[in-house]
Amino acid sequence: MIRVLLVDDQPLIRSGFRALLDLEDDIEVVAEAADGQEGWALVKEQLPDVALIDIQMPVMDGIEATRRIAADPALACVHVVMLTNYGMDEHVFDALRAGATGFLVKDIVPEDFLHAVRVAARGDALLAPAITRKLIDQYVTQPPPTRVGSGLEELTSRERESVALAARGLSNDEIADRLVISPMTAKTHVNRAMAKLHARDRAQLVVLAYESGLVSPRNSVGR
Q1: Left if phi > 0, otherwise alpha if psi is -120 to 50, otherwise beta: which for 33?
Q2: How many CA atoms lie within 13 Å of 41's alpha carbon, on the beta-carbon side?
Q3: 36 vs 66, 91, 121, CA distance in Å?
Q4: pLDDT score recorded for residue 142
Q5: What is the pLDDT of residue 220?
Q6: Which pLDDT tens digit goes with each residue over 74-115?
Q7: How would you classify the pairing of strands 50-54 and 79-84?
């Protein structure tokens, strides 16, 4: 059973998502919250598998709530997915750095929403190519400072290749096809790179790939 917590200040949004989730036999909504502070408290109390958290809320916004969840070792099992009204906004990078696993746009179709919750529960990042494309475009126009001492030198050549492909929005299966290896081997390369670079999840691994200079945004356009 996948345990889900809904955190959004709009009751209509919460009720709509809950109605979809309640129809699924393998998903249970354990609690709802109307702001980040209440959501953070309920995460500690309920320990959900997935916390769906709106970015902009009163009292405490979703980014700060996510940052507190990610900083607590006791909540390492909780996968935070940010809810946004737009495919990309100025808060996305802050949310990724805070520890968000990925993003869902609120007008997502029901089938994709349910699939995304199950993907997040497995611990996989919700960084679809469309979102990755926008991340790249943002880096092209406003490249962030290069991270010093990123730890890339600890990666093997295959791990570096796998990270670079993940940063371009490729799934493990697509990485496997590109490198002519098995999907399990591709996943192993990505997971080992995450461990070496101390990335909480695949989303933060993608951000690090661009911040460290492993991937050049301009060279990624049109992958």
Answers
A1: beta
A2: 8
A3: 8, 15, 20
A4: 54
A5: 47
A6: 998 899 998 887 655 567 677 777 888 877 888 888 998 898
A7: parallel
